[in-house]
Amino acid sequence: MKASWLIALLAMLVAGLGWGPAFADPFPTIPKAKGERCVEDPQYMRRNHMDVLRHQRDDTMRLGIRTTKHSLKECVSCHAVDGKDGKPVTVKSRQHFCASCHEFAAVDIDCFACHASTPEAKR
Ligand code: HEC
Ligand code: HEC
Ligand code: HEC
After folding, report:
1. Phi, psi for 4 (deg, rounded to 5)
2. Substitution site in 34, 37, 45 for ligand 1 pocket (most atoms within 8 Å of beta carbon)
3. Domain boundaries, the chain
4. Helix, strand or coil, per DSSP, at residue 94
5. Which residue, 19, 59, 98, 110, shows the most beta carbons closer than 10 Å to its own?
6. Which positions of the chain have pLDDT values less than 50?
7. Residues 65-94 pLDDT 10s
8. What is the value of pTM for the model shown?
9. Cα–Cα distance between 15 and 51 in angstroms, integer?
């Protein structure tokens, strides 16, 4: 009796939060970018974005080279997704560009412990 209640409650939560379709869908739904084109070919980025980011980080941190081309800030800005409140969602939402795929692929990244996952507020 108790267990079936729990299952029903969980099912409602899951459906309510919109996780339902994720179980049925064989592919993640990747939100569309705001800008016209990616910093590299999207096909290439799909496979190699982690290397591109690591490379950019190493250039900045070790060599002090600072460019915007592969900057994480730029990714997060152009790939921002607005939530129901009209504000960009953070990586905690599975609607977030980076989370959309990672959640599906069970990839866990620590980048957003330090870096903002939303476009930075303009001052
Ligand atoms: C100025 C806008 C812009 C910037 C900056 C940008 N992208 Fe993109 N990105 C796009 C567009 C446009 C596409 C093609 C798919 C689409 O229309 O959403 C894309 C595609 C991708 C894809 C493939 C998604 C898929 O549908 O398979 C990945 C992965 C990706 N970008 C990662 C990144 C990363 C990582 C960065 C930062 C280093 C970045 N992008 C910066 C616009 C951008
Ligand atoms: C098209 C799907 C997709 C999108 C969109 C995507 N990723 Fe990934 N990402 C993956 C997959 C799949 C892996 C694991 C690849 C592997 O293990 O070889 C990965 C791995 C990574 C890694 C390396 C993790 C590790 O443990 O080595 C980083 C860093 C990363 N992604 C950053 C990002 C960031 C930042 C964004 C958003 C700007 C993003 N990704 C968007 C699919 C995606
Ligand atoms: C412990 C905190 C921390 C974590 C975790 C972290 N970073 Fe950083 N990262 C920094 C700091 C600090 C800088 C230097 C800031 C600056 O000078 O802009 C930096 C710089 C960068 C840069 C170069 C600046 C830019 O945006 O062009 C990139 C790219 C980057 N990090 C990507 C990543 C990625 C990808 C991950 C996850 C795999 C990650 N970082 C995880 C702290 C962190």
Report:
1. -65, -35
2. 45
3. 1-25, 31-113
4. coil
5. 98
6. 20-22, 123
7. 999 899 999 999 999 999 999 999 999 999
8. 0.87
9. 36
